[in-house]
C-alpha cells in the first residue's frame, strides 16, 4: 500500500496520468481503494506536443490501460513548444501552464471532482532546492502544497523509492519519458546531477527538507493571517497599515500588490522599495509595475492603481443628490442630529445662493469650526489627509471660501446655533478614485 493523503470517502477524483511510474502507481492504488472508499475515478492524459510520436505512444498506452480498467480518460493535446515561443517562457513553464489550463477544463466539465497529481516527496525536495537557488522567501520553502484549491497530491509524503517498490510488487505497467534524463532542464539537473551528490553526503536530506517544508507552511500561514489584518480599502485605494514586524508588513505589501493586479511582475527589490517608504517622510513615493504607485501616508502606505488627475468638476449647490466622479453627495433637511461617518450638519440659511460643490482649488481657505481661518492645504495637513487624496475631497464653497469639507468638517461660518431654523444634513458616499 502507498501512503495516500487527502483522499476521503466518496471523493470524485480525476487522476492526472502521464503513463510514468508515479502516476500509474497512483491510479493503481486509487482503483484498489475504489470500492472500499466509494470513489469515482476518471483519468486525465495530456500530450504536451514536446516528444512527437513518443508522446502519442505514451497517451495510447494510458488510454488502453484505462479502457481495460474501466476508467474513462479525458485526453487533450496541447502545443507547449509553440506556447513557449509565442510567450518567451521556458518549455517547462509552458507545459505547466497548459497542463493546468486542461485541469481547469476538467473541473468545469465535471463538477465536484478533484484533480489528483502524482507529486511525491522527492519532487518536493527538488522544488524546494530550485526555489532556494532562485532566491525564495518562506513561501518557496513550502515547496509543493499537499492540496490547493481543487488539486490534491496524495503521494506527497511518499518517496520515489517507495513508489518504484510498489510498482515492482504489484506489477504496475508504466512507460519511461526519455526527457526525464535530459539534464538541460533545471528540474532534471537537480534530480539527476545534484540529488545523488547531496544524498551521498546527507542520506536523510529528502526527509529533512520535507520536514522543513512543513515548518515553513505553518510559519507562512501565521504570517499570512496577521498580514491580512494590515490590508484594507480606503477611498477606493489599497492601504497597508504600518507598525508591525517587517516580515508581516512585507507580506502585507505583497497582498496589497495582488489586490492592485500586480500578481507576477514584482521582485524583492519592489517589496523592499515599498517597505523603505515606512522610513521616509510622508508623501514619499515608489513606482511599481503596471502603473501602480505606493505613497507614504500617515502611519500607512497607500497604493494608487493609476496616476489620476484631479477632475475639473463644479456644480451648483442644491438639495438632493449630486453625483461626483468619485462619490455621491446627498443634501437633505435634518430632522434629527446623529453624527456618523461621512455626515455633516450645517445651517442651510448660511449657504449663499452662489455656493457650489467642487474639488479644492489653489488659494482655498477654511475657517475650521471653533477656530481661525487657514489655507485648506494646511487644514488637510493638520488632519493627516494623504497628499494624493486631497484633490478628490469635495467641498461646498463660495469662490475661495470653503464652507463644508464634505465628510470631514464644517466651517465655523455655517455652524448650527440655537437660532437655526433650517438645519441641513450632508452625506457623502465615496467610490473609486
Provide keyphrases for this structure.
elongated; 3 domains; about 425 residues; Uridine Diphospho-n-acetylenolpyruvylglucosamine Reductase, domain 3; Rossmann fold; six-stranded mixed sheet; 13 helices
Report on the structure:
The protein has 433 residues and is of the alpha+beta class. The chain folds into three domains: 12-206, HUPs (Rossmann fold), CATH 3.40.50; 229-304, Uridine Diphospho-n-acetylenolpyruvylglucosamine Reductase, domain 3; 314-430, no CATH class. Helix content is 37%, strand content 22%. The protein contains 13 helices and 22 strands. It has helices at 21-37, 53-69, 80-87, 91-109, 121-133, 138-141, 160-169, 186-201, 205-228, 246-259, 268-275, 376-382, 387-390, and strands spanning 12-16, 40-47, 73-77, 113-116, 147-148, 151-152, 231-234, 237-241, 285-287, 293-296, 300-304, 314-316, 320-323, 327-333, 343-347, 356-358, 365-367, 373-375, 395-398, 401-405, 409-410, 423-430. The strands form four sheets. Strands 12, 16, 17, 18, 19, 20 and 21 form a seven-stranded mixed sheet that branches. A hairpin with a 3-residue loop joins β20 (401-405) and β21. α1 (21-37) packs across α7. The chain is elongated, with a radius of gyration of 31 Å. 31% of the residues are buried.
